C-alpha cells in the first residue's frame, strides 16, 4: 500500500501552508487520494500507474495549496470562536435556563430578602445549581483552547445575557413610563437579584478552569 501521507507531503509546497494546519491538510488529501486509488478501475494497469492517476487528480499542487490555505484561513477563526466561546456559552445558558424552569415546575418558590424597602426574590435552589453551569461553560471553552476571557465569558453567559436583557428593558421603561427614582432603585435591586448574585455563583464553578494553560511538552 502506498504511503499517501508521504507522497502528499513531498508534493505539497511547504511555504504555502503553515505548519499548524499542514498535518491536517496532508491527512485529508492522503485519505481522499487513497479512496480514489482503491475505487479506481485498474484492469491491466500496474500499481505505479494507478498511483500516478490518483495523484493527477490533485492537479497543480501549488494552486491546490493556495486554495487550501485561503479556505483554512477563512474557516479557522470562525470555527475556533464557535468551539471556544459560542457553543460553551449556549450550553451554559441553556442548562441554567432549563434548571430554573424545572424548579418552577416542581413548585420551588423564591425566598424574599428585604433590602431597605425593596424585596429581592432569590431562587436559592437555582443559585446552588449555577456553579455547575459556570463550570460547564468554562470547561468546554478550555477544552477548545479558548482564552481566559473566553472561558470566563462562557461560564458567566447566563448572567451576561440577563444583563443585556435588563439593559434593554430600562431605557424602554423610562421612555414609556418616564423617569422615576424608585424605578431606578428597583432596577438596581433587579441587577443584584438576576445578574450580580448569579454571576458570583457561576464564577465559583468557572474559577478552576481560568488558570493559564500550560505549554505542551515536547
In short:
With 218 residues, the chain is mainly alpha-helical.
Low-confidence stretches: none
Q: Looking across the biggest beta sheet, what order are the strands in?
A: 1-2
Determine the strand fraction and express it as a percent band.
under 5%
Structural class: mainly alpha
Helix content: over 70%
- Report the count of strand segments: 2
Number of structural units classed as domains: 2
Order of helices and strands: HHHHEEHHHH
User: Number of helical runs?
Assistant: 8
Mean pLDDT: 79
As an assembly, this protein is single chain
Largest sheet: 2 strands, antiparallel
- Termini separation comes to 31 Å
Principal-axis shape: elongated
What value does the Rg take, in angstroms? 27 Å
Topology:
Elements lengths: L3 H8 L7 H21 L7 H10 L4 H45 L5 E5 L2 E5 L1 H20 L4 H8 L1 H21 L3 H26 L12
Antiparallel strand pairs: 1-2
Helix pairs in contact: 1-2, 2-3, 4-5, 4-6, 4-7, 5-6, 5-8, 7-8
Amino acid at each position: 500500500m502506498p504511503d499517501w501521507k508521504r507522497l502528499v507531503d513531498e508534493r505539497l509546497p511547504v511555504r504555502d501552508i503553515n505548519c499548524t494546519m499542514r498535518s491536517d491538510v496532508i491527512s485529508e488529501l492522503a485519505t481522499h487520494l487513497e479512496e480514489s486509488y482503491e475505487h479506481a478501475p485498474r484492469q491491466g494497469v500496474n500499481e505505479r500507474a494507478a498511483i500516478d492517476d490518483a495523484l493527477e487528480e490533485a492537479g497543480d499542487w501549488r494552486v491546490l495549496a493556495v486554495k487550501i490555505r485561503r479556505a483554512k484561513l477563512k474557516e479557522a477563526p470562525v470555527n475556533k470562536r464557535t468551539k471556544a466561546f459560542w457553543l460553551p456559552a449556549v450550553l451554559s445558558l441553556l442548562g441554567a435556563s432549563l434548571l430554573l424552569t424545572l424548579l418552577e415546575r416542581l413548585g420551588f418558590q423564591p425566598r424574599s430578602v428585604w433590602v431597605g424597602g425593596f424585596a429581592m426574590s432569590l431562587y436559592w435552589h437555582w443559585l446552588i445549581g449555577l456553579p455547575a453551569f459556570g463550570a460547564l461553560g468554562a470547561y468546554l471553552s478550555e477544552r477548545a483552547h479558548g482564552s481566559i476571557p473566553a472561558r470566563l465569558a462562557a461560564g458567566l453567559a447566563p448572567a451576561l445575557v440577563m444583563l443585556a436583557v435588563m439593559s434593554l428593558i430600562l431605557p424602554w421603561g423610562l421612555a414609556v413610563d418616564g423617569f422615576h427614582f424608585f424605578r431606578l432603585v428597583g432596577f438596581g435591586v433587579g441587577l443584584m437579584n438576576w445578574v450580580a448574585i448569579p454571576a458570583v455563583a457561576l464564577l465559583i464553578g468557572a474559577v478552576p478552569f481560568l488558570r493559564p494553560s500550560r505549554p505542551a511538552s515536547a
